[in-house]
Design goal:
Length: 494
């Protein structure tokens, strides 16, 4: 008879996590902002090896542990496909003049003295309409980063404003996958969940907008020199055919996402449309990009379309600032991020398979004595899973599954739990460099996670406000006292 694997001891549960935190800290110390381009991946693989050794000690076979890693990686397969597609979309949208056009029009409207607050509000509106922070960042966000570069305002603050606005909409939109996942895990009605989140989300966002407005007023700049907007816009017009027709692909993508079309096909359609628009409206740009004078014009257009999808766009206008902003995109740009995600999800998969995550959660739950400690434990667990499992969906699913019945035992409505899962699980995911969301945001915006983290005010504030509500009992809603029969049924179900 095969011996069943045993439950890990506390030191066995903590060891892989401690090793990971130590190695990741070392990666940041030695390599700084470049830590996500190889060093973090090495740290995650070494920590995975330690977790595998613990798994063997617990009685798991290699096949079982391998299945755990494969399952963990499979959870991120959708995100990886979206990442590669977004890389292609960025490339074709620059080649087609869409991103240069958005930057051009943005420079006509936005100014440095109100830029951060405006960027946050714009992203909040777009994200509310689409329900997707990733779509918002990869479309509107990259244009705002370009505008910020021209206006010479702080890029880390700009990235923080973009992410704050994008996650405000992602958190409240009924179209968002996480906004639907959290109530599904807890048995809460969707719109009841959204209304309950307003108690923590609105104050957090108001404070964030106020802070961004203060930074606008203080004139946070990367340079004291005044930007030459006229020269910049004239260079854009001279090198790209800019017109309102370029708004068709972005509007179509936003409409597709708003109509609940899955992100992967919607973004792929956007990338392909960008390539077609480049061939029809930016022929000379494509021909210059290919650089092969011997190639027939039609074949050069096809090659340019193909090349920009995988390799991104290389801008050569003669203006170093424009060239830096517009040289980017392509699936290849996303490969470091894919590498990071694969490493992180393998680690998270081993932790879940061996029961280490469940063991750590039970240890926390054993210390829960009151409503305030339960709220705090839920927030802390969601944050912790974002760090060690590197996936925002796991940070919602695992605590939702583990704490659901404890909330019922203490007579708390399920929407209290679903709100906590979003306050900590959804919102802290872009603050972890090796999390799928943190890795994506840093790659798409070309700003390191630890650089924008102090300025993602909305994401930072929301968990603290949620913890404060838990401590004071404000907006924490109770249900009728749970009968002893109900408690026994819950225990049996668990």
């Amino acid at each position: 008879m095969t011996k069943r694997p045993r439950t890990p001891h506390i030191w066995e549960s903590v060891l892989p996590v401690v090793i990971l935190v130590g190695l990741l800290s070392g990666a940041v110390y030695f390599f700084g902002e470049n830590a996500s381009f190889g060093p973090n991946q090495v740290a995650l693989m070494v920590a995975t090896f330690v977790a595998l050794l613990v798994g063997f000690r617990l009685g798991f076979t290699w096949k079982e542990l391998e299945e755990g890693m494969v399952r963990g990686i499979s959870l991120a397969s959708g995100a990886i496909l979206i990442l590669l597609t977004i890389g292609a979309l960025i490339g074709t949208w620059i080649l087609s003049g869409i991103v240069p056009g958005l930057i051009y029009w943005g420079l006509q409207i936005l100014r440095a003295d109100y830029f951060f607050a405006a960027a946050c509000l714009i992203c909040a509106v777009v994200s509310c309409a689409t329900g997707s922070s990733w779509t918002t960042v990869s479309t509107i966000g990259i244009s705002l980063i370009g505008i910020a570069s021209v206006l010479q305002v702080s890029l880390p603050v700009t990235a923080g404003a973009i992410i704050s606005g994008a996650y405000f909409g992602d958190k409240l939109s009924p179209l968002s996958d996480t906004t639907n996942l959290a109530p599904a895990m807890t048995g809460t009605e969707l719109f009841s969940h959204i209304r309950h989140m307003l108690w923590t989300t609105i104050p957090s966002f108001v404070i964030a907008i106020t802070l961004f407005s203060c930074m606008d007023f203080a004139g946070v700049r990367d340079s004291t020199a005044e930007p030459d907007l006229g020269r910049f816009t004239s260079t854009l017009v001279a090198n790209f055919d800019i017109g309102l027709h370029l708004l068709v692909p972005p509007v179509l993508v936003l409409l597709l996402v708003a109509r609940r079309v899955p992100a992967f096909p919607a973004l792929l359609i956007g990338a392909l449309m960008g390539g077609l628009f480049a061939c029809f409206f930016q022929e000379e740009v494509v021909i210059r990009f290919v650089g092969d004078k011997e190639l027939p014009r039609v074949l050069a257009l096809v090659e340019g379309f193909w090349r920009v999808m995988y390799g991104g766009f290389v801008c050569e206008t003669g203006n170093s600032q424009i060239d830096t902003i517009l040289t980017r995109g392509g699936m290849k740009q996303m490969l470091d991020t894919v590498w990071l995600i694969l490493s992180a999800m393998a680690f998270g998969g081993v932790l879940e398979k061996t029961g280490i995550l469940a063991s750590l959660t039970r240890r926390i739950l054993s210390r829960v004595k009151s409503t305030r400690s339960l709220i705090f434990a839920t927030l802390l667990t969601s944050l912790g899973i974002n760090v060690v499992a590197s996936d925002q969906y796991m940070s919602i699913v695992i605590p939702g599954r583990m704490y659901r019945f404890e909330f019922q035992r203490k007579g708390l409505k399920s929407k209290n739990l679903s709100r906590c899962l979003e306050d900590a699980g959804t919102l802290t995911s872009p603050l972890v460099p090796w999390n799928t969301c943190g890795a994506f945001m840093a790659t798409a915006l070309s700003v390191a996670t630890f650089s924008y983290l102090p300025f993602a005010f909305f994401n930072l504030l929301n968990p603290f406000i949620s913890a404060f509500y838990g401590f004071t009992g404000f907006s924490i809603e109770s249900i009728e006292a749970v009968s002893s029969k109900s408690v026994n049924m819950l225990e049996e179900h668990r």
